[in-house]
Design brief:
The complex is a heterotetramer of chains A (327), B (284), C (372) and D (317).
Chain A: H1 8-28, H2 34-59, H3 68-81, E1 82-83, E2 88-89, H4 92-114, H5 119-139, H6 141-144, E3 157-158, E4 161-162, H7 166-189, H8 191-208, H9 213-239, H10 249-262, H11 267-283, H12 291-305, H13 317-324
Antiparallel strand pairs in A: 1-2, 3-4
Helix pairs in contact in A: 2-7, 2-9, 2-10, 2-11, 3-4, 3-5, 3-9, 4-9, 7-8, 8-9, 10-11
Chain B: E1 3-12, E2 15-25, E3 30-34, H1 41-48, E4 56-61, E5 64-65, H2 71-76, E6 79-81, H3 94-99, H4 103-106, H5 110-115, H6 119-137, H7 153-166, E7 171-175, H8 183-196, E8 202-206, H9 210-216, E9 219-224, E10 227-232, H10 234-238, H11 241-248, H12 254-278
Parallel strand pairs in B: 3-8, 3-9, 6-7, 7-8
Antiparallel strand pairs in B: 1-2, 1-4, 4-5, 9-10
Chain C: H1 2-16, E1 23-29, H2 36-55, E2 64-70, H3 75-87, E3 91-95, H4 100-112, E4 117-118, E5 134-135, H5 141-154, E6 160-165, H6 169-184, E7 188-194, H7 203-212, E8 216-220, H8 225-235, E9 241-244, H9 251-257, H10 259-262, E10 266-269, H11 278-291, H12 299-316, H13 322-330, E11 334-336, E12 339-341, E13 353-360, E14 363-371
Parallel strand pairs in C: 1-2, 1-3, 3-4, 4-5, 6-7, 6-8, 8-9, 9-10
Antiparallel strand pairs in C: 10-13, 11-12, 13-14
Helix pairs in contact in C: 2-12, 3-4, 5-6, 8-9, 12-13
The chains are: A mainly alpha (327), B alpha/beta (284), C alpha/beta (372), D mainly alpha (317).
């Protein structure tokens, strides 16, 4: 706890290291075979999603099994607002905020009725919400094209440059994810983050020390959903095709898997979790149809060996920051 | 501040836990609430804290009607409490248990805290400084970074009181603070409560340990079946037949009262220990 | 473009080199989800074609290899796989994907690396982008849904139709075509309902249909849904003529629904009867020999698609490169197992053929030959 | 119209009975371990396949269609086989995780589900297998509705099983142990009950019933396929929640309720709204009802609804 502000040299070192890593990545990764870059893009998108879900599940202790709904809302906002669907062609940057906003609003709207629910009942209601959203996307054909999906989505433009290769998206995603993680971390250790933790540990006692649990929970739902929305918009921009298949209940479970396997509530763990859960299935590709079988085995083994997640909670961002010598 | 109850009533279905109770708790003194099991002591605290809804009657903090308010609003009005079986935030560190109490005060600044560079750390340090002071006051500073659940039972009790004091309370309600404490711990507790008492603080203690009650309290309220049986100074209470009857059904010596109380205290200790067992953070 | 050239150069070298590397063809389809049967038997069909080509000495001495991948019918994985194939220079052509929802995004990727892509997805949108490297040697949904409508109107003189689809890209696609064509032809659609692809209990919808008592019932969807739907349709005593699309061209349809219930059901398929054409008879025998099971609904298509690529490779001559294969495909002109194959500018089949079969006993008999 | 309604009702009860049987497995496991057992749906699927092969074997032995006795024997055999599978899974994949975060066993169950599904797909059959009808195909006309013998059997058999289970849990010592454990595992332990026995028992009965549901389902629709578990399982779980998870009558009621919701959602909605809301809105309808029920009655129909007062909001996973 008692950390004194780091020395100037320490900070310089930290900055240098981070800058070096980021620069290195932005220089090296695009040099990799495009397939790897695409995989890394996917990992980053799932890091965004997981960081979002983690706010609700990891910080506030509210189990949400329908998180994919917000991902879908984000993706469909870009698909509808930047394609021939209604011949609307808004700029990517704008839709990024619209999509995030819409998802955030949806998050709050979902939050209001479920405030009283806890644990698995909450889980099931959110599951239901997720399915409802997916089914709506599948049924509201006039808006979403139903199962046919929205194709020929505009190529995203950012600062006048077109984003069409996975490399471009990596250059967009890396800083975005870093910012998101930083903010999530600052949020975690902010007073609101502590409030969430208190609600997670003992909601009644949390009220007893004057925490307005209603506001705190709605903020958790809203903020996490917003992140999900961002991820969705970027996904739609990368795929340039969106259909309901991509937002099944299975996706929600994958995101829950990521945060649990990484280490619930630990941002470092989340990054590792996302990497593992996206890369492992890719590594198993050569086994073609045996792939999912092996994937299932891998899941069970990992969970049995490390039920509290791959990354121990003491290796959290604070530890990272100390190691870097920032403070 | 003064806490006044007016014709306060609480029903659980058919059971009448508190029956048209009117009382006044004055600031600057320690008021103990005693009475046999089921007299409605904890119910009283739970209503004042907003954990239970009031069936009828009013709870007035000076002239604010608490029964109208939500639980967190009551807490924000400076009504702090501890729980009969400890309710700490087990998965959080000891210091975080106090830090989070600044939520009502600092929540408005969250946005700035998250987005303004550097501010996050500065605010954190300020908070920690305040909490460390509070911890130090209760001699818990050495445990600052441990999990609340890993503290000894006595220290958990202290931490809970420390947490309550973090709210800068006007009313401090302690539900069986001594239950399960050994002799030395009780002694320290007594001193601590004395230190905490400020002229503007109304301290309410629900306790079974008669020796503690008699030596600690300035004023004692005896409840029986949800009604006020008697109130007065410790001396007056000790010499009151009605009180003894309430406890033992027949007139008896005060030692017997003490005996009964100690026996219960032990039971509580056992239950509470089981409680801790149950609340080890079995989580990530 | 540049990539394609470099690859061309590389491939040129390998072709010249004495040590002959294998020529790889990639394919991606659903192998581990509910559609695993389709994906697997589809790829088996390709395997068969490739085995035959290898038996015949391969392509100018080089052995052909089929790289089978699983996309789980998931667009995200489809694009990842597309990239994987693109990056792998030894892959000179792909047969991908099975689901339209996967092919649409993956074709973007394949197009960037000039990968010759032969697809099995029948959704009209697939070719909307007009990619020059994308070819579809099968009839699209317009044909698939249109022919039965025409037949119902002209041959059966049907006036009313109830339409059900499984809310999937394919099922809804053909169902909408059937509806519009049926209505254009003056027929009346009594109800147009969607069910879930995973459904097995259609009694709710069927009970509704029963009250409409339509002349024909069209089901847009895949197995086992079709079979169960037909079974329950008959069990609830609806005698209307039943139509389904090519996923139902399977013995499973009859076993699932039961011969009595299946009798008279109409199924559209893109190949002439297995016994009509020696190639098909042989194919069926070979398939059974190779995989000791009946061919799946798309095995014949898979075989055909692989055969088309092999044909194009032969044209490519010494340099079996992505570029040359695309050229080869462009001017494909050969008589495939399922009829003449020739592509128009959009990469669509010039003369897509469709046949309507009628369930009779334990088999299908040709009811309505049609070629436009 | 009456025929229409009766028909829909019969359909609803049949599928509802199957949901209810599966829901029992979820509800019992949840009642004790508070675990959403995602693998349970695959027990149902495996059950269907085991039944298929036993019936096929019986047919090849006796030649003609299986007799009542044989069918009964097959039911018992399937129940035991899948029950043992369930016990094995609990011992290997869940027991080591007791005391860990409650999410861990849930996700381990998910992994098991994936494994089972793929094993059946890869090593048994990708193809939907035509399930032999073990019931005489007899049907009656009730108010213009077609009611098959099979449907009647399914409903009655399911109800019988559930009543039997209810009796077992309430009357027998083992059953009482189970209830004790589900009331409060720690107290049960303090009382010297070896909690593993009841838990294993639950993981025997639950999957067993799921497997029977699998056979009934397969017999009713005449098909088994490796992918049949997930959706049905999900719906059965929702039925369990609707009824109030942890309660056996609740599971029963929830099953029938969901069955009715679905069939009427699919059959009646289009009618009432004159096609404005098509049958494709069936699941949305069902899920919406679920959400509403939980919001207004957070513990389902039969679950003991905790009042704001009794509630201790400790972290729950």
């Amino acid at each position: 706890m008692r950390r004194q502000a780091g020395t100037r040299t320490g900070r310089l070192r930290a900055v240098a290291i981070v800058a070096l890593v980021v620069a290195g990545l932005t220089y090296l990764v695009p040099g990799l075979p495009t397939y790897y870059v695409r995989v890394i893009d996917m990992v980053l998108i799932y890091v965004l999603l997981a960081a979002g879900l983690n706010m609700v599940v990891g910080y506030a202790g509210l189990l949400d099994l329908g998180f994919v709904a917000f991902y879908a809302i984000g993706a469909y906002s870009y698909a509808i607002l930047a394609s021939g669907q209604f011949d609307i062609h808004l700029p990517f940057a704008l839709v990024l905020f619209i999509g995030g906003g819409l998802a955030g609003i949806a998050g709050v709207l979902l939050g209001i009725p479920v405030l009283r629910l806890r644990g698995d009942y909450l889980a099931i209601v959110t599951l239901g919400f997720g399915e409802i959203v997916r089914l709506l996307m599948n049924n509201l054909t006039w808006m979403t094209n139903g199962p046919q999906g929205v194709s020929r989505i505009d190529e995203p433009f950012l600062f006048g440059a077109g984003l069409n290769t996975p490399q471009d998206f990596f250059r967009l995603l890396l800083p975005l994810v870093l910012v998101a993680l930083t903010l999530a971390w600052r949020l975690e250790r902010s007073i609101l983050g502590l409030g969430w933790a208190a609600i997670r540990e003992d909601q009644d006692a949390a009220r007893g020390i004057g925490i307005n649990t209603t506001i705190a929970k709605l903020l958790a739902f809203g903020l996490s959903a917003t992140l999900g929305g961002f991820a969705g918009v970027i996904f739609a921009g990368l795929q340039r095709f969106v259909d309901p298949v991509s937002f099944s209940f299975w996706e929600s479970l994958t995101i829950v898997l990521i945060i649990v396997i990484g280490g619930l509530g630990n941002l470092v763990g989340i990054v590792v979790g996302a990497a593992v859960l996206i890369v492992v299935p890719e590594l198993l590709r050569e086994y073609s149809e045996y792939r999912m079988l092996l994937y299932g085995c891998a899941l069970v083994v990992i969970i049995l060996l490390r039920p509290r997640g791959l990354i121990d909670r003491r290796y959290n961002p604070a530890w990272l920051i100390r190691k870097l010598g920032w403070r | 501040m003064t806490l006044r109850l007016e014709a306060l009533t609480k029903r659980f279905g058919a059971l009448l836990a508190i029956d048209r109770l009117s009382l006044t708790f004055k600031p600057g003194m320690i008021t103990s609430v005693i009475g046999p099991n089921g007299a409605g002591k904890s119910t009283l605290i739970n209503m004042c804290a907003g954990s239970y809804k009031v069936s009828s009657g009013r709870i007035l903090l000076d002239d604010v009607e608490l029964q109208e308010l939500k639980k967190h609003q009551i807490a924000q009005r400076g009504v702090a409490r501890t729980y009969q079986n400890i309710r700490l935030f087990d998965g959080m560190s000891v210091i975080q248990n106090l830090e989070v109490c600044l939520f009502p005060e600092l929540f408005g600044k969250t946005f700035a805290e998250v987005f303004v560079p550097g501010l996050s750390h500065r605010m954190k340090e300020e908070r920690l400084a305040r909490c460390q002071a509070a911890l130090d006051q209760f001699g818990l500073l050495p445990y600052a970074d441990e999990f609340a659940a890993d503290l000894s039972y006595g220290n958990q009790k202290l931490l809970e009181i420390a947490r309550a004091t973090m709210l800068r309370p006007n009313v401090l309600m302690l539900d069986e603070p001594a239950a399960g404490l050994n002799h030395g711990e009780k002694h320290r507790l007594k001193q601590k409560l004395r230190e905490l008492l400020r002229p503007d603080l109304t301290m309410i203690v629900v306790e079974h340990d008669m020796s503690l009650v008699m030596t600690l309290s300035d004023h004692i309220i005896v409840l029986h079946q949800g009604k006020l049986l008697f109130e007065g100074t410790p001396a007056e209470v000790q010499n009151n037949i009605a009180v003894q009857e309430a406890y033992l059904g027949s007139p008896g010596e005060l030692d017997e009262i003490r005996e009964a109380a100690r026996a219960r205290a032990n039971r509580v200790r056992i239950r509470a220990d089981a409680g801790i067992e149950r609340r080890r953070p079995g989580t990530n | 473009m540049r990539i394609a050239l470099t690859i061309a150069a590389l491939a040129g070298i390998t072709a010249a080199a004495p040590a002959l590397a294998d020529i790889k063809i990639g394919t991606a389809g659903p192998l581990s989800n509910a559609e695993a049967l389709f994906g697997n038997t589809w790829q088996n069909g390709m395997q068969l074609a490739i085995n035959e080509a290898n038996a015949a000495g391969g392509i100018n001495g080089q052995k052909l290899v089929l790289v089978r991948q699983d996309d789980q019918g998931d667009p995200k994985q489809g694009t990842l796989l597309a990239q994987k194939f693109c990056d792998d220079d030894s892959i000179v052509a792909v047969i991908a994907d099975f689901n339209s929802g996967v092919t649409i995004p993956s074709s973007d990727v394949y197009n960037r690396c000039g990968m010759p892509q032969v697809t099995n997805s029948s959704n009209p949108k697939v070719t909307a982008a007009g990619y020059q490297n994308l070819f579809r040697p099968i009839a699209n949904d317009f044909m698939q849904g249109g022919a039965p409508a025409e037949y119902a109107l002209e041959t059966l003189h049907a006036k009313t139709a109830a339409i059900v689809h499984d809310k999937q890209a394919f099922g809804e696609g053909v169902a909408t075509v059937f509806r519009s064509d049926f209505e254009k032809g003056g027929g009346k659609v009594t109800s147009y309902s969607g069910v879930a692809a995973t459904d097995v209990d259609f009694s709710a919808v069927i009970t509704q249909i029963k009250t409409e008592n339509p002349d024909v019932v069209y089901y847009g969807g895949t197995m086992p849904g079709v079979g169960l739907f037909l079974k329950q349709l008959r069990e609830l005593g609806i005698k209307s003529r039943f139509f389904a699309a090519d996923p139902a061209f399977l013995p499973d349809l009859i076993t699932t629904a039961g011969p009595a219930n299946a009798a008279g059901a109409m199924v559209s398929f893109q190949a002439p009867p297995y016994d009509s054409n020696p190639k098909l008879v042989k194919f069926r025998q070979d398939y059974k020999k190779a995989f000791n099971e009946e061919p799946g609904p798309y095995s014949a298509y898979g075989y055909n698609e692989a055969a088309i690529i092999i044909e194009a490779m032969k044209k490519a001559g010494a340099k079996v490169t992505r570029e040359n294969i695309v050229k080869g495909l462009r001017d494909t002109k050969f008589d495939g197992m399922m009829g003449p194959v020739e592509f128009d500018a959009k990469g669509e089949l010039k003369q897509p053929s469709l046949y309507l079969y009628k369930v009779d006993g334990n088999g299908f008999v040709l009811e309505w030959p049609k070629s436009s | 119209m009456t025929g229409f309604l009766v028909q829909q009702l019969v359909n609803a009860l049949t599928i509802g009975a199957i949901y209810a049987l599966i829901a029992l497995g979820y509800t019992m496991v949840y009642g004790v371990l508070r675990l959403i057992n995602f693998a349970h749906s695959e027990m149902f699927m495996v059950g269907g396949h085991v039944g298929f092969f036993l019936l096929a074997a019986a047919a090849s032995l006796t030649g003609g269609p299986a007799s009542v006795l044989v069918v009964f024997a097959i039911f018992v055999a399937t129940f035991i086989a899948v029950g043992l599978l369930g016990v094995g899974i609990e011992a290997t994949a869940y027991r080591p995780l007791r005391g860990a975060s409650r999410l861990a066993p849930m996700l381990s169950a998910l992994g098991v589900a994936i494994i089972l599904q793929n094993v059946v797909m890869l090593f048994v059959s990708r193809r939907p297998l035509p399930f032999p009808a073990f019931m005489l195909s007899m049907s009656f006309d009730v108010f213009g509705a077609v009611v098959t013998l099979n449907q009647i059997f399914i409903v009655l058999f399911a109800i019988a099983l559930m009543v039997g289970l209810g009796w077992f849990v309430n009357a027998t010592t083992l059953g009482i142990k189970i209830r004790a454990v589900s009331e409060n595992m720690r107290t049960a332990q303090l009382l010297g009950i070896n909690v593993n026995t009841p838990i294993s028992l639950i993981f025997f009965i639950g999957p067993g019933l799921g497997a029977l549901a699998g056979i009934l389902y397969a017999g009713y629709y005449g098909i088994v396929v490796f992918s049949m578990g997930f959706i049905v399982g999900l719906k059965a779980f929702i039925a369990a929640i609707l009824g109030g998870i942890g309660s056996i009558p609740g599971a029963m009621l929830g099953g029938f309720a969901l069955g009715i919701l679905e069939t009427f959602g699919g059959g009646l909605l289009p009618r009432l709204t004159h096609g404005a809301i098509g049958s494709e809105y069936r699941d949305i309808f069902a899920f919406s009802v679920l959400v509403l029920v939980l919001i207004f009655r957070p513990a389902g129909f039969f679950g003991e609804s905790v009042t704001e007062e009794g509630m201790v909001y400790k972290r729950d996973f």
